[in-house]
Structure formats: structure tokens, C-alpha cells
Prior knowledge:
173 residues; alpha+beta; two-stranded antiparallel ribbon; 3 helices; 8% strand; elongated
Amino acid sequence: MQNYTFSPAGVSSADWANALGAIFCSLLFVVVILAFFVVLFYRIFHRAGYNGWLGLLALIPGFGSLICLCILAFDVWPAKKKQDELAVRCVLPGYGEGTFMPDPPAAPEPAPVPVAPVYAPAPIIPSAPTVSTEPSIPLTPSVPPEPVVSPIPSVPSAPPAPPAAPTEGGQTL
């Protein structure tokens, strides 16, 4: 009979790294799957009218999801109870007894929003003018004298200057 013992001398560090990596990836996968189920059951419980945090029951190892499914399958949902309370039973001629959902009550009119009054700035009232004994405004308006315009002598226009003769090398041709 052989005796098997664990000997770290026969295992390389690469093998240890691979084993730890595989364990880490497996745990990460399990955590992601569990988070998915918790969110899934949270939404289902919330829509059924239960407290959504009952979805945390899915974290119970082994049979947590089974507990959630049993609650949802065999209990009367609070949302269904509320719907049944609002439903009206009636007898339809020729069709027998039935239920119908009345129209939801109309939303009340929103309260009017008070509008703050807009205040205009107070008008600026000029103070009373000071009265002095000597007049600052002349009683008769003064009109400036009309400017004297001197006639412009007519200047005969000069004939245009003849064009200059072409030069070559500084000499006139």
C-alpha cells in the first residue's frame, strides 16, 4: 500500500498560479450568477406586490431559489389582492357573471401655482428745485449771429500738363 503525501517540492509556482486563477474565476462566476438571481427575484417580488428584498432568499445555498419560487407559486400576490378589491362583479345578460375593472379615478386638478407679484421699481421723484435770487436762465433767448460767408473767387482751371517725353539713359530723345 502506497502512502500519498502532499509535497510542495514537486509542484511548480506556475501550477499554483493556475490553480489560484481557476479558483478565483470560478468564485467570480458564482458571485455574478448569484447577483443575477437576486436582481431577478427582486424585480419579480416587487412587481408581485411583495417587498423586493425577499429576493435575497435566493442567496441561501442549495434551495434559496426554490423557496422564492414556492412563495411566488403558492401564495396569493398582494398586487392580485389589490386588483380583486378594485374589480366590480356584475352579471352580463347572455354572458353570465363577470368582473371588470372600472376606469381609474381622474387625477385631481393641480393646485394653482401662486405667481409672485412683479414689483416695478419705485419711480424716481426729483427733488424740488432750489430757488436762487439771481436768474440763471436769461429771460430772452440769445441767437447766435449768422456766419459771414465770403464769396469764393473763381479760379480758372489750369490745362493739364503735357506728358513727359520718354528718356533713354537719362537723355531726352
